[in-house]
Design a protein that fits this description.
With 144 residues, this protein is of the alpha+beta class. The chain contains four helices and six strands; from the N terminus they run H-H-E-E-E-E-E-H-H-E.
Length: 144
Amino acid sequence: MTPAAIIEGVNTSHYKIGQSLVDSLEGVIKQEPLTTKSVTLPSKPPAEYPEAIRICRLRDLKSYKYALRKVLFLQIEKTEDGETFIAKVPILEIFGLGNTEEAATKDFRLTLIDDYEILAEEEDKLGNDLREHLHYLRTIIREI
């Protein structure tokens, strides 16, 4: 829909310069349609997480603004030096770090919420991959 169609019925004579600019850019700025990849979180933890020292269920985000729609299986690992814990859900490509498993899990929750909020705030500026990621996050996270 063009800007002229949006403001139909309004005197648009002072919009002619803007309209000609939009017309000249038509076809140049085309956003590809969103194609959603079908990705399903497992209902059981994967049989093998080779790097994991522990798999735990993440049932909530401990947030007053957001809640999980689904249980996530959080993979807990240690870094090579053994001093830092990593909490992650590999399919999300998001992780948290901490000196303890609890600290890494807390950092994961905060990182997941930050990722969701930043993407949601900038939604109209996102490319296809990030729009798909945001769409996927919306299947996992809901606002309270």
